[in-house]
Amino acid sequence: MNLFSNFRQFGVFIAICIAIFTLNLYLEFRSYEAFKVKPYNFIKADLLFSDKRQGKNSEYYVLQFKSDNFIFYTRSKNLPKCSSCEVGVITKNLKFKDYITGRFFLPSFKISKLDINDSLANILKNAIISQHQNPKMQELYSALYLATPMSKELRQNVTHWGIAHIIAISGFHLSVIFIFVFFVARFTIAPLQDRYFPYLNLRFYISLILFILMGFYLYILDFTPSFLRSYIMGVVGFLLLSRGLKVFSFGNLVLAILIGLAFSPQLLFSIGFYFSCLGVYFIFLYIYHFGNRSDLSSLKRILMHTLILEIFVFLAMNIPVYYFFPIASWYQISVIPLSYVFIIFYPVSLFLHLFGIGGLFDDFMIRFIEFAPAQGKANLELWQFIGYNIIALSAIYKKWIMLLLALLGLFVYIFALI
Predict the structure, then answer these.
(1) Which range, of 120-134, 190-204, 205-219, averages the lowest pLDDT?
(2) In this predicted structure, which of 188-192, 210-214, 313-317 has the lowest mean pLDDT?
(3) What pLDDT does 395 receive?
(4) Where would you tag: which of 64, 128, 322, 389 has the fewest CB atoms within 10 A of its CB?
């Protein structure tokens, strides 16, 4: 069964989402006005990231800070010697359209150390980086587990391999963690269930506990957009499945998007949220046109569909990704087998970090991450990006349009490299 039995019910749901979105947008504007009462302000924030740059006459640092309500960038001649800081910023030129994105630039005039207890996220970050000597590995694993920013050099490295979406915490990570912990817990608790509480639905309660724990993880990550979309879809799917309702449908993707936007208007400006939603859309698109329930009875067909799906999503995502990140490399095609390797690597590396030996593979990882060079650049115009998105949405109606998406992505990929 579908969640909404008619268009009227869906319309009521959309109206509720619009009302919640409008209220949250108004609250954001009030917060913006309060922030700009004075032309300057002092903000308590954690230093997330620093990047050394070369100016015309001297070097300077680009700093990224995270406060309770937003992330902001600033410039400084010196690198602050603090993780928790009090930053004096000039707010008079800040526009609401920038403030609502949750990430913006503010000129600063003073940065001083703030003597407070570190947040849980900072404690975890320090525990991760303490296990690695190489700064690039510190950034990589911190980004992999805590969604912290990466330096320009590391971003280029992962872009050349085409694994930026693997590093950025998203539904892929949620799925790997969920499946791994679910099966470990199930086989551990199953003997106890058979003896003491056979009347309980073990899968339901393990899933419920895991979603609660994932919600706490989402809070630690400060509601990272891609992971937030994944979590909302996971919870919605869990509720639908437990009630015997249809899970894999475009309507449920729209449901998750509307809920996310209603409660967090900043997602409207998030590239990560857009990529996350588009990736799931392409997965659903393949299932819609090529999914066959009878194929689930054959391991050979399951493996075949999984591989074809990986290839399709890779090609279909090329144009949207290259519009924002135009660097192309032949090594990016290796993201397909690397996705399968990551399913093993992610829980194993997490397990090693829990025991304080997370740097075990650092020598190999640093050589691997720096191996792939940039080999081309895709130059896409805004009208091409918009047109592709329109074509992508229309692919629901025709299978050949879906195949056209993959062909266009393949054409742009090859053209960028020759």
Answers:
(1) 190-204
(2) 188-192
(3) 95
(4) 389
**pLDDT tens-digit series, residues 141-184:** 999 998 888 888 888 899 889 888 888 887 778 888 888 888 88
Hey, is 148 helix, strand or coil? coil
Quick check: 351 and 122 in contact, CB under 8 A?
no
Name the CA radius of gyration of the chain, rounded: 23
Tokens coding 336: 């397909």
Kind of pairing between the strands at 327-328 and 84-90: unpaired
* Cα torsion angle, 309, 170, 348, 204, sign: negative
Sign of CA pseudo-dihedral 16, 19, 22, 26: negative
Q: Which tokens is 86 given?
A: 């009090």
Contact present, 70 and 51 (Cβ < 8 Å): no
Domains of the chain (ranges; CATH) run 36-117 (2.40.50), 164-417 (no CATH)
- Fill in the DSSP letter of residue 308: H
Give every strand in the sheet of 59-66, ordered side by side. 103-105, 71-76, 59-66, 40-54, 84-90, 108-113
Phi-psi label, residue 356: left if phi above 0, alpha if psi -120 to 50, beta otherwise = left
Q: Do 77 and 109 touch, CB atoms closer than 8 A? A: no
- Which pLDDT belongs to residue 255? 87
- CA triple 120-123-100, angle to 5 deg: 55
pLDDT digits (tens, 9 = 90+) for 232-284: 888 888 888 777 777 777 888 888 899 999 999 989 988 988 998 999 999 99
User: What one-character-per-residue DSSP string does 316-333 give?
Assistant: HTHHHHHHH--EE-GGGG
pLDDT grade for 1, boundaries at 50, 70 and 90: low
What value, to the nearest 5°, has the Cα angle with vertex 187 and ends 181 and 193? 115
Please enumerate in sequence order all residues whose Cβ is within 8 A of that of 391, keeping only pairs 6 or more positions apart, or say none.
401, 404, 405, 408
- CA-CA distance, 145 to 126, in Å (whole number)? 12
Contact 226, 168 (CB under 8 A): yes
Question: In residues, how long is the chain?
Answer: 418
Close Cβ partners of 5 (under 8 Å, ≥ 6 residues apart): none
